Amino acid sequence: MAPLQTEKAGEPLSTGSRWLRLSPHLKTRRPSPRVLMIAITNPPYNLLDGNVLSELKRVLLALRPTATGAVILTSDVPEIFLSHYSVQEILDFSSLVPFPVSAGVVRGLLAWESWSAYFGFRGLTRRTPLAPLAHLNLYHEVTHLLRSIPQITIASLNGRAFGGGCELALACDFRVMIGSLAEGEEDNIAAISRGIGQPEIALGLIPGGGGTQMLTRLLGPAKALDLCLSGRLISAKEALQLGLLNQVVKDQKELNEVTIEMAKSMARRNPTAIQCIKDSIHVGGSQSLADGMRREQGNFGEACLGPEAGYAMSTYLKNIDKFLGTGEDAKPEEYYSPLVNGTFIDMTPGGAARQNKRKKT
Amino acid sequence: MAPLQTEKAGEPLSTGSRWLRLSPHLKTRRPSPRVLMIAITNPPYNLLDGNVLSELKRVLLALRPTATGAVILTSDVPEIFLSHYSVQEILDFSSLVPFPVSAGVVRGLLAWESWSAYFGFRGLTRRTPLAPLAHLNLYHEVTHLLRSIPQITIASLNGRAFGGGCELALACDFRVMIGSLAEGEEDNIAAISRGIGQPEIALGLIPGGGGTQMLTRLLGPAKALDLCLSGRLISAKEALQLGLLNQVVKDQKELNEVTIEMAKSMARRNPTAIQCIKDSIHVGGSQSLADGMRREQGNFGEACLGPEAGYAMSTYLKNIDKFLGTGEDAKPEEYYSPLVNGTFIDMTPGGAARQNKRKKT
Amino acid sequence: MAPLQTEKAGEPLSTGSRWLRLSPHLKTRRPSPRVLMIAITNPPYNLLDGNVLSELKRVLLALRPTATGAVILTSDVPEIFLSHYSVQEILDFSSLVPFPVSAGVVRGLLAWESWSAYFGFRGLTRRTPLAPLAHLNLYHEVTHLLRSIPQITIASLNGRAFGGGCELALACDFRVMIGSLAEGEEDNIAAISRGIGQPEIALGLIPGGGGTQMLTRLLGPAKALDLCLSGRLISAKEALQLGLLNQVVKDQKELNEVTIEMAKSMARRNPTAIQCIKDSIHVGGSQSLADGMRREQGNFGEACLGPEAGYAMSTYLKNIDKFLGTGEDAKPEEYYSPLVNGTFIDMTPGGAARQNKRKKT
């Protein structure tokens, strides 16, 4: 594949509102200037594999906050987000090594592959039978990017997200899924077959893209053990009740509306603040409390000393009585909405905030 | 301010049941001998700032378990617990440094300020433009104290607790808030304007007093990302459903009754056990599982070797059949209540338990 | 006690389906070939103590995945799972040391006892007044075994599980409890007296077998503080709503049916995958996110390179269209069930998967 240009303010990826095939398994479009939709297309079952991961990493690395404020990750195959990771690829790896290997040795090999990739040898590794090591590392790098880029990431789940698909969705900041909230939907096998879950154990495997980690941190160890040890698949309704999803919508049309609306409103946020919040929650929140607190405070300093916050704060202070007044004349409905839905102030690079700061300094 | 005396058994802070102005922004009263209420008063919007934090730290440091067993933190301004942290103070800091600074540099400066405060230079720092560094550290010290003192801490939320106010409430052991549980209350803008949330991102900022850390640990990363990235404010009802609040009450009168009753019942507990539980949960619970387990076991040893537990255990063993009997004559209602509501045995210093231990040894 | 033989494929512990007294406080039976039920019997109140823990450890160490795939932990005393840990034993320890001791010193003593046990001196220590140190370490070792053995562990809670009983249940992978889901059951004192909770603080103590750690990780710090600081006992219904239980059943008969059915279905799983999932969730999930991710990936490699996964994956690939088809002919009900309930493929040692692998290599 030809190298992908990184975005600049004037040249964002896929400038049109219609789908553009960016690479063999990815299409992109822009429903709104600062919102990039990425659709994975690997029919018939939309399996995740090393190639898809490699293309996804390329795109995520090319994004710049000057051009893109929110990313929507979806699929191009009806009723399927991602069926699961390619079992053939895992089987090839399993057949390669005829004897059991301990977890520590695998970790050592992964560390070695990370180093060799750093020196540019990943392309080579991927042509050898050791490719699955490169792909496991790629998986880790893609989910790490989703959790650390200064863009909001939204998983738009148009159908089944099992195994590796579930894990990719869990690495996004928000998850919206098509499903029904009707009575008895939890036991509806058709709903379950378009649902979510980590069925790896049915094949004697375990999640390998962060499923055990994200489920434990989202739901606690009891629910994580339940899902991973039983391997049971759950409907969108049950996933919403558990807290795996942010919202359930009824069909593809509503899914697009909801995710694009969410992305548009979030894409106006301060990219530094988005990145700092994601880092504080994912990295800081997984450390000891004292370390996490310090991490948050450092991030707070970074966000508050950036150019965007200064302008927003001074604008807010001029209107503080409107926002905080509690007397009879208080009309919170007029003031809360812009504050919270992001229309209060444009904090995108090149927007009012940054220009004002430039003037000031 | 004149230095505050530390409490002794005979001279607790604010001995009366009526409000006493302890310092420029704090009032205190004792609704019950071992319960101290602290009200923050900084009208009109009850903003949190460096001065309030400094006064809060003084009071928390002065508390002694011999005099105080539970602390209720509330506000003196109707319908407002704390609107948020003073934006003016953050803006002054932001204006001071005209170029972006990385999170690591801020963490380094905070560590330097902590050291200089240790050698007594905080008063000096607070008179320079670097005061916000001192205040960030002060914030961390106050929430750390709330999480580690041997007193039960209860946030009595008489109204809006946004941003810094939400973070201060989250550092307490229990949170009770005025609100309505009526249908549709989640979308009622008036309820939301008296609710709770972390709207920092609306001003291009992020929570800086532990919001991302406490939300992640309380609710998991998905809900924490939702609240911090959207900045949406939520009603007391939604906060209760999420698990941010322990109880919602209908008005100020009920708020006082509930929090004081809760505080009175908890104030009879063994202070060492309270401190050990808080440490095990906050510190141990944020470490790796093996480290956390060892931390709990060490704390268990400390609590069980203290003077209070010995007397309580021997009293319990004399009556064990009453508590554990399961036959037809069993009357659990008679025995469970005193065990659980704290009236079973007085474990306050100077109470029966400690006197008995003194006799024994 | 005579040393217990470790299990081999042909000689599992307690081969019969009727109860066998294995040691003074334990009975075992096999309701199904790969399912071992262990009942604790220490009437009248089924208190946990050093002897019970020592016997439990012996049995858990003797298990081999070739013979046992799932363990059900229950009690032999009607309406009582485990009342709590023996208060007499803690009191003896407390009386031994007439002065307060800091948590750090206790941790040091526990580390010393661990070392001396490693060199075979635990039997000696348990005959001295320092026995409680050995028992605290034993407690830690038993709960660690429950969280790390390659067998599924199910707590079959036939009644009250307070204090140490609650902690032992929380160390299992699944918890099923007898109780009622009727209206108002949360406040029913009879239901509460057969419920669950950590009432240690009522005696001036704190949980010592991992209660603060497991509750914090399962429910977050707010709920953990609520339960441990108030010491309140809760009914099975409330415990289910909180997420402490996986299921509530109405009586002993249903309890046996449900737990045995659950165990039978899980006992066919790949033991390596079970162990890897438990390790990823408990150990990995308590580390920082980056460390946890690496731990999971290492475990994934170990599971996928074992003999069971290879055969399962190749069988699955032959039928992938049946499982993943979404057209009008798709009949997910026929294919999802065997995949998820464990009948899809027998991955027990000696089963089809392993024999096939032996042939191949």
From TrEMBL, chains A, B, C:
Top-rank lineage group of the source organism: Eukaryota
Position of the signal peptide: none
GO cellular component, one term: mitochondrion
UniProt similarity note: Belongs to the enoyl-CoA hydratase/isomerase family.
Organism (species): Pseudomicrostroma glucosiphilum
Protein name (database record): ClpP/crotonase
Pfam families per record: ECH_1
UniProt GO molecular function: catalytic activity
UniProt xrefs under InterPro entries: ClpP/crotonase-like_dom_sf, Enoyl-CoA_hyd/isom_CS, Enoyl-CoA_hydra/iso
Gene Ontology biological process terms, A to Z: fatty acid beta-oxidation
